Amino acid sequence: MLPFTLEKVTSVQAAIAAASSGRRFIAGGTTLIDLMREEVDQPAHLVDINALPLSEIRIEGSDLVIGALARMTDIAAHAGVQRLHPLVAESLVEGASPQLRNMASIGGNLLQRVRCPYFRMHDAPCNKRSPNSGCAAIDGLNAGHAILGTSNHCAATHPSDVAVALVALDATMQVRGPRGERTFPVEELFRLPGDTPHLEHTLLPGELILAVRIPGGPDSRRARYLKVRDRASYEFALVSAAAALDVEDGVIRQARLAVGGVGTRPWRLRTVEKALIGKPLDRKIFETAARLALEGARPLSGNHYKLELLPRTIVRALEMAGEAA
Amino acid sequence: MTTNVIGTPLPRVDGRAKVTGAARYAADFNQGGQAYAVIVGATVGLGRVTGIETAPVEKMPGVVAVITHRNGPRLPYAPHKSYIDPATGERLHVLQDDQVHFYGQPVAIVVADTLDQAERAAAALHISYTAERPLVDLADPKARPVVPAAGKQPDARLPADTARGNADSALADAPVKVDEIYEIARENHNPMEPHATVAAWNGNRLTLWSKSQFVVNEQAEIAAVFGLPPENIQVICPFIGGAFGTSLRTWPHVTLAAVAARQVGRPVKLVLTRKQMFFMTGHRPRTLQRMALGATADGKLTSIVHEGTGETSRYEEFMEALTSVTSFLYSTPNVQTRYRLLPLDIGTPNHMRGPGEASGVFALECAVDELSYKLGIDPIELRRRNEPAIDEGENKPFSSRSLMKCHDLAAERFGWSRRLPEPRSMRDGRLLVGMGMASASYPAFHAPADARARLLADGTAEIEVAASDMGPGTYTSMTQVAAETLGLPVERVRLSLGRSDYPPAPSHGGSWTMASVGSAIRAACMAVQEEAAKRPQGGRPIEATASAQRDPDVAARFSMHSFGAVFAEVAVDPDVGTIRLRRAVGAYGIGRVVNPRLARSQCIGGMIGGMGMALMERTVLDPRDGRPVNAHMADYLLPVNLDIPQLEAHFVEEIDPHVNALGVKGLGEIALVGMAPAIANAVFHATGKRVRSLPIRIEDVLTV
Ligand SMILES: Cc1cc2nc3c(=O)[nH]c(=O)nc-3n(C[C@H](O)[C@H](O)[C@H](O)COP(=O)(O)OP(=O)(O)OC[C@H]3O[C@@H](n4cnc5c(N)ncnc54)[C@H](O)[C@@H]3O)c2cc1C
Ligand code: SF4
User: Fold this and answer.
1) Which domain holds residue B520?
2) Domain of B607: which CATH number?
3) ipTM of this predicted complex?
4) pLDDT at position B536, please?
């Protein structure tokens, strides 16, 4: 681990000022310290933002507002979250392990980095870690990698669970930087790898995530998250799906669907959603619609199974949401 | 006077020390003025080191030494082989030449004042190589099997080939057949405690506080490596945080710690990283097995052909008991076993809990299960029809064999009678439910051991033996043996383990510690009592050392094995293929149970290990350079709490007067055997899909 300095800040202003001069935020540290230990990430100066008043979890009308520093455990255990946005609670509980969730903040979660094993190996090429060095995964072992949104430069999946839920629910994020505050959809935080896989998100230098806002809707109380993996806990998704259905008289009025474990970013499936609207809750319909998720999918040598698992996961998640609806 | 403590559920005598942190593990033995060493591993999978730029690193803060094959000492490496080392080949001679045999092989060691400095320097050390593509895939057509040399000896413990009758022609003639290939992935032991050695020289004498399941062998080996008399080396390891076999051998890092300490003239501490434990300290070899069974229509086995191949390194022939149980588990006139090795560009594998048997029994017990479906006979009944009267391989009676008793007990506790025989016929809501079972077996080994007993004037006793306790509860169970033999309450017995200057014990593996060391402690306690009877009470401590070994005549007359039965229930999600173990029941015939609490805990641990083997564990090597890509606790899947359902372990009443004076057979290893095939058979019963490759994962059952 390289030596670094650590400075604590108590105001958002001070945090932004520090970050503008090249310092990096640290919240729970569960991702950052891990990567610093492995020297994959090498910040020389850290700003500890844990003292900032950004931990609040608030219900505003039917919206849920989560401060960037709220811990995964606290959000998932919050009665209002469980009632209004069970999908958010479910996706959080399915992530990581209890120890990690106790430390991990939602802001840090959205900015966690990929789990591609080569990303952590200094003796393997990786465009994300060192631009233009090549990609060890594309011709290597890639069973965990993405089939959607990949490029010839990188195919790592975005690992976050809760991000899938947030993207499905049209959540927005509030950020503040040296040039003021802005709000934009969480979905727009994530970049596709293209030929610059080292650039992962759209935050501007010095920008601090303040909060995430999740609009309530008729479907959000019954939305569900399904995470598929080989062990019951403490494993990233092979495939996951967040599904929200607004159903009236057995007919789907609105559908929102995003998937994880398959995309280079949390993957919203609008074509699948469209194919469901106006249709009855019927497994056959789900199956036909779920096939559309594979449009443009590019499997690698080791992850063909995701072509089969993705539609099945979607069907099952839609069934779960339908049962709740 | 007896206290009857054998057979009671005494809580761990070292439990308090462990949970309070008072128990000291190898890396806890920090020495004044110590330096820290970090191993630099090869980043190619096969080739030669062509350059090492030590100069810039030597100038880094805190760096004391950078040791490579160029500037390091030429070590004598006098011949040394214990039974724990492969019989054929030669251990890795570390930092003695420029050759790289496998990815991660130590090519340099960096020593610095602090661990951080040593890690920084190790990361900065630039090494160049010439590299070739290694061969690391057992299934690669370029890999050429060899007959293990030690298996060709006439009296080989693990014969390469065995035959009785004519298995091939009986198979060809059999009315009903199963003939399949079974595969098991490479696994790593992954104990909680990493390998660690603190080395300190005093002139020509060396003390090693080092994680070891076999301190007397570590002493002998390091003495041979450095060309010193064994009495110059002291190995100390009172506690082990799990090992599962990975610390049976003495791996190169121990030598490196000693080399570094001598070079820098200070004590040196060396702890392996989790990642290094994936290529430097052995693994369960990946295996491929052909298992062919022939049977009559009423389920009598007429032939078994078992051809097993395990991977090994290019420099040592690691052998395990892959095909051993096949000759005696069931009755059949015709058996042929063939054991081959595939030398690859990898580090040498080594024993991992249930070594050989766990893998071989997987193939046999899945094949028998397949046969039961072909015949339409209940799998327990099929085993009953083939229950042998004697060990037909050795042509000897069993000293005791409770296999069918185990099946009956486990079946009853499990509720096997509720199972519907048809695959894919049982459901719980949406989920497919499957029940499977398997037999288990492991030899009741014995090795000569010594122990010392000392009676003190205050009425307490001290027992010393160079055995180890890697977690099963050896401190506790041995205390019970001593207390009972001496007629003392357990609080008055103090047991000390894990020093090479104690009376020698065999390696702590192979489920022979209670049989061997327990018998030696019993003998020493009896000897010290005899001594005490000759002397007046009080005064000086009375001491006696005694040995125990198995009576060779009895050993020649009987075939000695533990047997067990394992039943498992799984639920498979028909949509997304997730497989969850819902419950499992094991029943074991292991002779006398010294401590039922510890025995149950051993069995449950073993069952969890077997579950890992069945559904999760797999070290994946990148074929381009042989690197393990999932050398990380987040990526190498082991069962976590949420995966572990209700597990039950039962023991059948079994009195075996032949195995040893204590009547114990050992159970650490057998507890893992049988679990993987029980689960694989349950997955088939649930889904109708036979998966013959472990671990069974979601992608294997997705399309049924
Ligand atoms: C072994 C392991 C398993 C895991 N499994 C899962 C899983 O199954 N599912 C899942 O979703 N996640 C999983 N995680 C990821 C875990 O959820 C994240 O590590 C965690 O959420 C990160 O939060 P943190 O507060 O610790 O972030 P930190 O490590 O403190 O920071 C992460 C990054 O975010 C930046 N950052 C933090 N806060 C802000 C802010 N307010 N504004 C701007 N930038 C900020 C930091 O500068 C840093 O770059 C796992 C992690 C580990 C280590
Ligand atoms: S997939 Fe992406 S993260 Fe993985 S090696 Fe390639 S570039 Fe690096």
Assistant:
1) 447-549
2) 3.30.365.10
3) 0.96
4) 77
